[in-house]
Amino acid sequence: MSSQSILTVKDINPPDTRSHSCQTSVPSPFHNLFKSQYKTSLSDDNSLSSTNKPSSTKTENLSSKTHDKPILAEREIPISHVSHPSFSDLIFSRSSTFCTSLYSSSSTSPEPCKYMSNLPFLPHPSPSPKSLQPQQKSSIFSEDGTSSEMAAEEEQSDDDVKDFLNLNGGDASDASFHGGNCAKNSLAMSEQMEFQILSEQLGIAITDNEESPRLDDIYEVAQQETSLEVSPGCHQPKSGAVEETKEPVVKVQLSTTRSASSSTGSANSANNKPRLRWTLELHERFVEAVNKLDGCEKATPKGVLKLMNVEGLTIYHVKSHLQKYRLAKHLPETKEDKKASSSSSSSSSEDKKPLLVNNGNDNGKKGNLQVTEALRMQIEVQKQLHEQLEIQRQLQLRIEEHARYLQKILEEQQKTSDSLASSIKITSTPTEIQSQSQLPETPSQLQSQLIEDNEVTKVNKKHSLGDSDNDCELPKEDNKRQRLEADELNQEKN
Amino acid sequence: MKFGKRLKKQIDDTIPEWKDKFLSYKDLKKLVRFISAAHPSTKAEAQFVELLNSEIEKFNSFFIEQEEEFIIRQRELQDRIEKLGERFEPSDAEYAAEMAQTRKDIVNFHGEMVLLINYSNVNYTGLAKILKKYDKRTGRLLRLPFIEIVLKQPFFTTELISKLVKKCETMMDPIFSLASAVEDQAETKEMDSAAIAEPSIFKNTVAALVTMQELRKGSSTYGHFSLPPLNLPEFDFLQSPSLPSPIPIQ
């Protein structure tokens, strides 16, 4: 399967840029998610800038993304080296609209590349429910129809898209989604996270009921993943769950130049509103649109939505945002009015902050010095808290990483000792034992200790939190691979 | 129960509208206790997970809403500050008043954002603890994979808010440096409660810091996966009697 995929990928590498870019745009909604998760080297602002500009960071992103991707990384190593360069060349030769129409997200270079390489390596899908396929088809083709650019090159691109989608071994139009579904369908606990990432990336098209099916689909999938994979004992049929829930959590990415937005997905909820995570850039666009429409009072949600021209943004998003915006605008105005009439503020102050402060006029008399000093002190405290929170968060992340790693080691070691025991019984050759007990890429020191001591905890104690950096620097692919194996072992045991 | 008590205290001190948005730590703990240790059924686990999921959903929606509002407010504050320079002459009385108000607003805003990050952190900590308890009780291995999912949730990915906080701090610098110039002429009077911009925010901030320090000071379960002790610089108010519990600063 994978070899077949490899060939197909290579075949496709040469140019239809459009098809490639379409495919590659899929992961973009989730770029931020993974970015934050995997702490890529990209900064938030810069990483997803300008879909139309191939940037030097692209390849950097590619490598970092490849590096970050768990299961896929290990399987796609041969291809990734092959495909990335060509993909990165191809990616931004097309406008983003086509891509966004297909996948309801902006196409930004890193994700597409990553996606491209990831797609062929999805685990072979178990047969997905038939009921999903028509929906998928409709969503795909409806999107195809919306793009005018698509129409021009439909013939060729269709074939290419189909070819490309065939990489996953699924039906022509369904392949990518298929793969995504299959990603969702993966049952092993050990692979949950990786596949969750996959499915999120793919942004499966599931529903046909939402206003913006594309985006909603993506988030529905992500949502499903989160909720379903959480329960270890329950292997709910993902497809069924997917069909049931129509409450996507939406993450919008800007369709054109601005850098993309943020992460998605929450646990399964009874919430019917599509949830959008606003970003600075998105808000910037919003403000621009509102200003063009003569202010927040006169601007209508529909008008703003049109002006913003962001794929996947619904009128509900704009409506609620506009409401909040108006509220925020009015509060300072009412404050000024109050000052003018020199009445103390109460009801008109912001909901969340009951201001005890007298109006500005009084303050002018009362001792600005003390006030400012007190404010300074407050700021200091707040800054301190912020700093500590950041540090704490980093530590927590590292602790979890460390825990993951140790779990792997533990399970590897168990596996080793099991196989050791069995091989002793069978009186296997020494080489067999060695190969089984070998943990490539683990620090050899740790390795020898494990085998000798047979106690992981002792090893742990030698590593304080400060040393966890060493552990974290291990190649992530191998970490993940070991974790996979360990989790599988764990699954068996459980 | 220590964490539970501290959490409760934080909730009491927090911004009123936020009070019901925190983790229902007590309820979750009860649930874990009721789950039989001998026969942890998948049904019980599913129920537990469902509760956790709904909590996470609660965090996420609240967090995303707040984030959106902060984005809007930050922009507005920025515009306001820019306009402030244009509208008034620096010597204007009204200017001083506006300035003072703006300063307060910025500090409040900054505080609220930091408190949101704290909210996120506190809830995460609670989740991690409850998962640990669950694993301990049932012998299952729910914690590790579940926490992976939690790490990716919107409420825990606070990068944007952090960024806003830093932006806010950058915005504040010119405001406060200007302030010192104006103050020289101001008459000094007694400092009153109006001096602190927003008592509940300030109080919550201090409480949060104190709680963090206490939580990390060491416990019976302190181990290699616990966070190291927190060292805060000397703050007078942290030792002032008005605070609920005097904390020895290390």
TrEMBL record, chain A:
Q: Which spans does this entry mark as compositional bias, Acidic residues?
A: 151-161
Record carries keyword Transcription = yes
Q: Show the segment(s) annotated as Disordered.
A: 1-73, 118-167, 227-247, 329-367, 417-494
Any idea which UniProt keywords this protein has?
Answer: DNA-binding, Nucleus, Transcription, Transcription regulation
Q: Which residues form a coiled coil?
A: none
Q: Which PANTHER family match?
A: HTH MYB-TYPE DOMAIN-CONTAINING PROTEIN, MYB FAMILY TRANSCRIPTION FACTOR PHL11
Protein name from the UniProt record: Myb family transcription factor APL
Automatic annotation (TrEMBL), chain B:
Record GO biological process: cellular response to cold; cellular response to phosphate starvation
Identify one Pfam family in the record.
SPX
CDD domains in UniProt:
SPX_AtSPX1_like (cd14481)
Q: Where is the SPX domain?
A: 1-148
**PROSITE patterns recorded:** SPX
What's the superkingdom here? Eukaryota
UniProt xrefs under InterPro entries: SPX_dom, SPX_prot
Can you name this protein?
Answer: SPX domain-containing protein 3
